C-alpha cells in the first residue's frame, strides 16, 4: 500500500492542476469584459453648407449622432449621463469649447447597439473662426461617462470611459468620412481588470481550500 501512495499523490496533484487550469480558463472567459466601441455616425452643420446660403452668424446648430456598441456576448452595460463636448480644433492645447450636450444615462444589453444624439447650438464666433477659406473645418469631439458592467447576477463598480475623435467637415457641412469615426481613448482604462483579477484570485483560494492545500 505504501508503494502506491506516491503515485496516488501525483495523480491527485495532476488532477488538481488540471481542474485549476480549467477553472481559471472558465473564470477568465466569464469575467473578461470589453469596453463599448463608440463612434461618430452623423455630423452636420447647416451653416457650412454653401448650397443653403446660410452663415454662422445666423445659424450655428450642429446635428450629430453617436453609436455605442456593446460587443460583450453576455455582459450588459449601465451608462451614467454621457457628456459630449465639441471643440474648434483637434489640437487640445489650441482648442476652445464651442458647445456641449448631455445624453441621459441608460442600460445596454449584451451585443446591442445604441444610437444617441441630438442638436446643439455652438458658439458662433468660435465656429466662424474654425472654418477654413475653402469652407471646410476640423473639429474635436469628446465623450465622457462612467459605466459599470453587469456580469451574470452582479454588477461591477463604476469606471470612467473617456473618448475623443477628430471630425473633418467639408463645404457642405457634412463629415468627410462617410463611415463612422471611431472615438478612441487617449489613455488605457485598466480599472475593472484589477477588479476581475481580485475576483479570480479569491476563486483560486476557495478552490485550494476545497482541495485541502492550505
Automatic annotation (TrEMBL):
Subcellular location, principal: membrane
Compartments (UniProt record): Membrane
Alphabetical GO biological process terms: defense response to other organism
UniProt key word Transmembrane: yes
Keywords from the UniProt entry: Membrane, Transmembrane, Transmembrane helix
GO cellular component: plasma membrane; plasmodesma
Transmembrane segments: 12-31, 192-213
Protein name: Protein NDR1
Organism: Morella rubra
Amino acid at each position: 500500500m505504501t508503494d502506491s501512495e506516491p503515485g496516488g499523490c501525483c495523480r491527485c496533484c495532476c488532477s488538481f492542476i488540471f481542474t485549476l487550469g480549467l477553472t481559471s480558463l472558465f473564470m477568465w472567459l466569464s469575467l473578461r469584459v470589453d469596453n463599448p466601441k463608440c463612434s461618430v455616425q452623423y455630423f452636420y452643420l447647416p451653416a457650412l453648407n454653401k448650397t443653403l446660403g446660410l452663415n454662422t452668424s445666423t445659424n450655428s446648430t450642429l446635428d450629430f449622432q453617436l453609436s455605442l456598441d456593446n460587443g460583450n456576448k453576455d455582459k450588459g452595460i449601465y451608462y451614467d449621463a454621457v457628456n459630449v463636448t465639441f471643440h474648434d480644433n483637434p489640437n487640445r492645447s489650441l482648442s476652445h469649447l464651442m458647445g456641449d450636450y448631455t445624453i441621459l444615462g441608460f442600460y445596454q444589453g449584451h451585443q446591442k447597439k445604441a444610437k444617441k444624439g441630438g442638436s446643439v447650438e455652438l458658439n458662433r464666433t468660435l465656429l466662424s473662426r474654425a472654418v477654413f477659406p475653402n469652407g471646410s473645418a476640423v473639429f474635436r469631439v469628446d465623450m465622457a461617462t462612467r459605466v459599470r458592467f453587469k456580469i451574470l447576477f452582479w454588477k461591477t463598480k463604476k469606471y470612467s470611459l473617456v473618448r475623443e475623435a477628430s471630425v473633418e467637415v467639408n463645404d457642405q457641412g457634412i463629415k468627410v468620412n462617410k463611415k463612422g469615426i471611431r472615438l478612441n481613448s487617449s489613455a488605457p482604462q485598466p480599472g475593472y481588470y484589477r477588479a476581475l483579477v481580485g475576483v479570480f484570485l479569491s476563486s483560486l483560494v476557495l478552490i485550494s481550500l476545497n482541495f485541502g492545500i492550505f
